[in-house]
Amino acid sequence: MTAPEPRRTGPAGHVPDGPGVPVPERGAWLRRGISRDGGPLIEDREVVWLQAGSFYADSRGFAGTTSFDGSRTRFHHLTGEPGEDTGTFRWDGTHLVERGTNPDGSTFLEIWTPLPGADGACGSWSGPDHHVVRVGHHVVHVDSHAGTYWRL
């Protein structure tokens, strides 16, 4: 899969070099590419991230809550892979471009594109050792072993 070329424009009112924007309160996103520690932009597997209010689930195997400090978004991992990562998001057309730092100090750039079918039911549910987020036709389930994505 080839990632789209970043553009320098965004939605009306977007300032490309200003502080980061908060993640949308509702969204179903497919990762289109990742660059690790300044390397090439690649995609080696399907990764889906769902956001329902302040709750999120990532099909790589972590879920929890997000918070925004006015510039950066923190992903607090509460289920699955332990840790916390921080990213700065910017709009690039309909894509979200995230630059961030992992718990181990490594850096990343990820490009996220909206998935169709995000309208409809939306919510987040958790229990001992699992977290589920649904956004429209998309569901991600995370437990201590893995993250799993389904399209309904």
What's the quaternary structure here? single chain
The main pleated sheet reads as: 8 strands, antiparallel, barrel
What structural class should be given to the helix and strand makeup? mainly beta
- Count of extended strands: 12
- Gross morphology is globular
Enumerate the strands of the largest sheet in spatial order, edge to edge or round the barrel: 1-2-3-4-5-6-7-8
Helix content: under 10%
Low-confidence spans:
1-17
**First-to-last CA distance:** 23 Å
Report the C-alpha radius of gyration, rounded.
15 Å
How would you state the average pLDDT, rounded? 89
Order of helices and strands: EEEEEEEEEEEE
Determine the strand fraction and express it as a percent band: over 45%
Number of helices: 0
Characterise this structure.
With 152 residues, this protein is mostly beta strands. Helices cover 0% and strands 54% of the residues. It is built from no helices and 12 strands. An 8-stranded antiparallel barrel has the order 1-2-3-4-5-6-7-8. A hairpin with a 4-residue loop joins strand 4 (62-68) and strand 5 (73-80). It starts with 25 loop residues before the first strand and ends with a strand. 32% of the residues are buried.
Helix-strand blueprint:
Elements lengths: L25 E11 L11 E5 L2 E4 L3 E7 L4 E8 L3 E9 L2 E7 L5 E8 L7 E6 L2 E6 L2 E6 L3 E5 L1
Antiparallel strand pairs: 1-2, 1-8, 2-3, 3-4, 4-5, 5-6, 6-7, 7-8, 9-10, 10-11, 11-12
Structural descriptors:
152 residues, globular, mainly beta, four-stranded antiparallel β-sheet
Q: What's the short story on this structure?
A:
By secondary structure, this protein is mainly β.
